Amino acid sequence: MMKESELPASINRIAWRTAFISLIIALLVFIATPLLPASSPQQKLALMASAGFGLLFIVAGFLYFVTELKQPTRSIEQVKANRISSPPPDWRGLGLTGFIWLLGMGLLAAHFFYWNPLAAAPHLTFQEIYDQMKLAQEFSPKLVITAGSIALLIQLGVGALHLLWCKVASYTGTRAIGWLALGTWFSLTVAWLAWGFHMSMGLADTFALTGGDYEVVPSTLVSLVMTALFLTGIYGLLRPAPRHPAPAALQEA
User: Fold this and answer.
1) What does the radius of gyration of the chain's CA atoms come to, in whole angstroms?
2) Which stretch of DSSP H or E encloses residue 177?
3) Which pLDDT tens digit goes with each residue over 31-81?
4) Euclidean distance between the first and final Cα of the chain, in Å?
5) pTM (2 decimals)?
6) How far, in Å, CA of 111 to CA of 146, rounded?
7) Contact between 119 and 113 (Cβ < 8 Å)
8) What dihedral angle (degrees, nearest 10) is formed by the CA atoms of 174, 176, 177, 180?
9) Are 88 and 165 in contact (CB under 8 A)?
């Protein structure tokens, strides 16, 4: 019979494997969806299956992370003395993440508000492009500022939770990197989607163009940065945590 102390570890293993497998299946099904006939029942079923496995990944990953965080707290000195694992970077990790976030937001802003508009309408100057978009009521500074503010609030929340979790036993250096990377990816994604949709639709409606990216190099760079943050986050959060000594062993040491 399974002991009560062994139950969280068992839940962790099952949740981690479920999350990992469901993520792989969701990605594979999503990649295969465009190969099916457009708007066919098979394509709709494939999209539903991908969304279902994606939801399962989120639920299992959340369950895994929550049960991991129920480990006893410990000090950084105990971690170093017993070599449990690398201690989480507290303010240093937060500072590096903030720097990456600022670079990411700057890259998104430069791409959506400068490089892409100039590439979409190369016969016009920067000022003429925005004058025509404002005249057509297709550019809203309020929406741009609101989306950026929401992204900033999300990033601040990610940093606050990081500092609160720094003394949780299972919140190791790998966990911290994963959380900060995934949180940064999510906050940047909010700005990416909001700014990208607003500017793409605005340029398309103003100049009778198709929505999309006309400047390929910055768009590719943004995609690479976002993919790196996402994969780093998934690896850090869902990597099995090392086994920790019992609290009594820590106190004896």
Assistant:
1) 23
2) helix 173-207
3) 787 777 777 888 888 888 888 887 888 888 778 777 766 655 444 454 444
4) 31
5) 0.67
6) 18
7) no
8) 160
9) yes
Residue among 54, 5, 71 nearest 244 (CA): 71
Check if the beta carbon of residue 184 is closer than 8 Å to that of residue 237. Answer: no
Closest CA to 29 of 52, 49, 44: 49
Burial of residue 170, with CB atoms counted within 10 A of its CB: 0-12 exposed, 13-18 middle, 19 or more buried = buried
Measure Cα distances from 189 to 19, 177, 196 in Å.
Answer: 21, 18, 10
What single DSSP character describes residue 136?
A: T
92-147 pLDDT, tens digit per residue, is: 888 889 999 999 999 999 999 999 888 888 888 889 999 989 898 888 889 899 99
Other CB atoms within a 10 A radius of the CB of residue 108 amount to 23
* Residue 168 φ/ψ, nearest 5 degrees: -85, 135
Residue whose entry in the numeric block shows the structure tokens 């999300």:
154
Q: How far apart are CA 98 and CA 104, in angstroms?
A: 10
Q: 83: phi > 0 → left, psi -120 to 50 → alpha, else beta; which?
A: left
Q: For residue 215, with 0-12 CB atoms within 10 Å meaning exposed, 13-18 middle and 19 or more buried, which class applies?
A: middle
Show the tokens assigned to 243.
């086994």
DSSP-based three-state secondary structure for 168: strand
CA 242 to chain centre: 24
The identity of residue 42, as a single letter, is Q
At 250, the pLDDT band (50, 70, 90 cuts) reads very low
Tokens of 81: 């003395």
